[in-house]
Amino acid sequence: MLKNILKKYTPQLYVQIWENRIKVTNINTGNIYDEKPLIAIETDEKGNKKILEFGNNAASQSGRQVEIINPFSHPRVLFSDFESGEKLLQHILFLLLGNKRLSSSPVVVIHPMEKIEGGLTMIEKRALSELGAGAGAGAREIVVYQGKELSIHKFDFWELESNDKKSIDKSAKSSFFLIIVVILIIIGILVIKRS
């Protein structure tokens, strides 16, 4: 029953990231932001930076001191500029949640949609997780999801979170077992050398 109350009143956000597209769906309302992941930044004579536009509108900005940044564009990885990515996601969440952000912290699933061959490194997972936490949305909980695109109609943050925790626990147990095996092998080698 508590889970159903949480689902009803907690904003659930599904963030899908491609190199040239970011799609954020508010599961509770069905509202969607789906644009290019761009930020236009202007630098004045004193070196102060000001964000001019986000998304598709950023691409149309021009000027001597205007820089267009895509925080999700890099030859090797999906996430290349943390500060710009954070500002972009902050803007998107403000558009989708408005003033509701102040009353109820959202739960967020961040789903990298490309450049994940071989799986994400722990550094990439942490950066994506911190992106959601630090985007000014005050996300209460974040899951970095890898897999097939999620169905909006069957979306369940708490199930994904539970599966993510089981995966982490399994990985930790495997790592612990591997460490024990390595220690035993080293002890065995030392015992053999002493004999």
Write the layout of secondary structure elements.
Elements: H1 2-9, E1 12-18, E2 21-26, E3 32-35, E4 39-43, E5 49-54, E6 66-69, H2 82-97, E7 107-112, H3 122-134, E8 141-144, H4 157-194
Parallel strand pairs: 1-7, 7-8
Antiparallel strand pairs: 1-2, 2-3, 4-5, 4-6
Helix pairs in contact: 2-3
Can you offer a commentary on this structure?
The structure is a single chain. The chain has a domain at 2-34 and 73-155: ATPase, nucleotide binding domain (Nucleotidyltransferase, domain 5, 2-Layer Sandwich), CATH 3.30.420. The protein has 195 residues and is an alpha/beta fold. It has helices at residues 2-9, 82-97, 122-134, 157-194, and strands at 12-18, 21-26, 32-35, 39-43, 49-54, 66-69, 107-112, 141-144. The strands form two sheets. Strands 3-2-1-7-8 form a five-stranded mixed beta sheet, sandwiched between helices. A hairpin with a 2-residue loop joins strand 1 (12-18) and strand 2. The longest helix has 38 residues, at 157-194. Residues 166-172 have low confidence and may be disordered.
